[in-house]
Amino acid sequence: MAVEQKILFREAEYNDFINRFPGVRQHIITNTTVDGVTTYYLESMKRLKEIQKKQGKEVIPDECIKYAKDIKNTGSGTGRKKSTKKTSSPTKSLSAEASILPEQEDTELINSPNLSIEHPDYQGVSEQTEKTITQEYVKLEKTTSETSEPASITQALATSEEFIDIQKNLTTWKKWRRVFDAVVGSSHLRVDPPIPCQDSALSVLIPRAALFVADGAGSARLSHFGSSAVVRYLNRFTASIEDINQEILDKDRQEDREIEKKYAHRFIKYAIEILKELSEEKQESFDLFRCTLLITIIGINQLFWLKVGDGFIVVEKGENLELLGPLGKGDFANQTTFLTEHLTEEDIHYGFIDVQNVTGVAAFTDGAGEKLVSNDGLKISGALSKFFQGIRTREFTQTELNQFLSNKEIWQRTTGDDKGIAILSSLL
What is the pTM of this model? Predict the structure, then answer.
């Protein structure tokens, strides 16, 4: 039986492809550099369709299938003219820009003026059963799209009775722009067989701006499935409780720690339910899917953040950068907390901040943090400020983020861990 050939991309086609369909890149598109020449390819149309069937059309939309077919059949994507002009590789194009983030000791770092956080006085998780925290929601395939524009989002949400009528509430997405990506680390590629990227990252704009980032446990061989599922389904869950989000984040209200704790624990319980469902589906131990979790959800009045394990959440307030939450690292190297059924209240960190002065927010795994936050968490790289500004002006897109995360010169003196990051920047 003949083996289906890979579909080769020119650099311009590759960049256009991942800009149009950012959820595709970490699943299918691969690039390798040999003797300074970078090759981009799609494994096969069969593989693409298999992932669409498994992951859903919010990850691999039909338009993506059609675009890939055009590349395969004509050597050019829909609406694109063939070009014979030679293009430079992303690695080479970034080499001149490596100064955007020099070695940490030489980088201009901005001190965080407020590194302490308030840890609510937890009173235990409420015993009241949450209707939305069920396995049925884990299986629910109706969701907001990661790549579509608001018109199709509203239509997608309306197809399920479990989702509220959200058409009149799409009020905040125009205020923000987003980029997100996750890149496999060099240390994962040096082993045989190579380890998949265990980081997952997503930033969304509708029904409201939000970030979701997860880092699979390095010792758990199926944690890449766990991190991907947690990020993808938490996005759906957040959209499904939009009426609650409005009450907590949009309206003026008095501080109520019990209400805030209940709101935060909704996400924890649901994330654990996702991993339990995944464990049952694959008939594997729950611990093999463990991952960390970072969330930020933006409202009209407040920004909610949540953190389990390591990784970083940084907010931009004008010219200042502030780190939210503790570092999340244990007493020993590579020790952290993961989403499990045995989480304690001390393992869950969350908070609410006024959103009026927030001009940007980024969430990223510890691998990406090696070049963006100092080891003690007291300094934040000014490169993040450049990212926020570039996103506002559309000069820093998915392509530039991928090039930054993939640049060997920038990451050569790091552990070689996976790097996942999701960013939101306001239009000021």
Answer: 0.66
